[in-house]
Amino acid sequence: MELKNIAILGPGGNVGNAIITELLKDKPRFTITGITRPTSSYTPPPTITHRTVDYTSFSSLQAAFENQDAVVNCITGGATHYEPSKLIIDAAVAAGVKLFFANEFVGEITREAFRRLPEAFVGGKCRIREYLEGLGREGKMGWTSLNGGPFFDMWLMKGPAGFDIPNRHARIYGSGNQPLHWTPLPTMGLAAGNMLHNPDPILNRPILLDPITPSSTVTQNTLLRTLEKLLDTTFTVSHVDVDKIHRNALIVLEKWKQGGEREEEKAQMGKAMKGLGACNQFYEGDDEGHAEELKRTVQNELVGVETIHLEDAVRDALERYGKDCPVVEGMFNVEACEV
């Protein structure tokens, strides 16, 4: 399969921009179209085409996808739910698109810890994967996806990893020894670009990345030691009861499921989802055997991704964001729900 015309949905977001940056390194190879809603403030680079579409209109989407070889879905928010996503996919099929690149990226959606989360909060990525698998088996359209865990650099610098770097403070969840399998955003862009360059090996399958080594020892504690070494300082440390966050979030989640998803409980569920998002990385009791399965399925080499040492990954993040990059408080201070 040869791909020439590439449509990027959500070109102004973190992932869309990273993929476009990578594809533009081989500009003669690809013709890139960034597709946004009419209300978007996106300003494209001068070397790519920009089209606006109504994401709720099948005909508008189909027209935008005509003559496109691949559609790379990088949109977030409400458009990740099942019906909006399926509409986009069906329009791509109708337009004769060869390859649909699903918007999975930051989570390994086959994990039970992810699959239990309500679609109302995380979107319909699991069901969309199943739908794409069916299209692939029927020969209607090829598909692929890229799963690399949270973006290493963004999580480290913006707070979700538990570090307030400007104030030299760390929040360590539990023991701090849970292995972390994260991928820097530029590496995600590189992998996606290589997948579009050579789609045959990745056709009709998900690709899993784990590029930071030694992967079995990337933890909050090793991150803390690395930060202290590179910054030549000592962090203050507070310890977070991740077991309580996990336990209480599951209680709220079960009440939500039993109560018919009542409107008045959405705020509490939002806090529970934030807690489960942290627990999916730091809680040590979930997904027994996940690490061994990960080792068997990682495909770094297949998509041209070289491993990077933890210290180099941390140094790159510090250089890219700056040592005074402020945290997002709502992502840094994750606490247990009240039950």
Task: Give the arrangement of secondary structure elements.
Blueprint: E1 5-9, H1 14-23, E2 31-36, E3 49-52, H2 58-65, E4 70-73, H3 82-94, E5 99-101, H4 112-115, H5 119-122, H6 125-138, E6 142-147, H7 152-158, E7 163-164, E8 169-173, H8 185-197, E9 205-208, E10 212-213, H9 220-231, E11 236-240, H10 242-258, H11 266-282, H12 290-297, E12 308-309, H13 310-321, H14 329-332
Parallel strand pairs: 1-2, 1-4, 2-3, 4-5, 5-6, 6-9, 8-11, 10-12
Antiparallel strand pairs: 7-8
Note the main attributes of this structure.
single chain; 339 residues; alpha/beta; Rossmann fold; UDP-galactose 4-epimerase, domain 1; seven-stranded parallel β-sheet; three-stranded mixed β-sheet; 14 helices; 14% strand; globular
Walk me through this protein's architecture.
The chain is of the alpha/beta class and 339 residues long. It folds into 2 domains: 5-149 and 183-208, Rossmann fold; 152-180 and 217-287 and 309-332, UDP-galactose 4-epimerase, domain 1, CATH 3.90.25. Helix content is 42%, strand content 14%. The chain is built from 14 helices and 12 strands. The protein has a 7-stranded parallel beta sheet, sandwiched between helices. A 3-stranded mixed beta sheet has the order 7-8-11. The protein has a two-stranded parallel sheet with strand order 10-12. Strand 1, helix 1 (14-23) and strand 2 (31-36) form a beta-alpha-beta unit. The longest helix has 17 residues, at 242-258. It is globular. The mean pLDDT is 90.
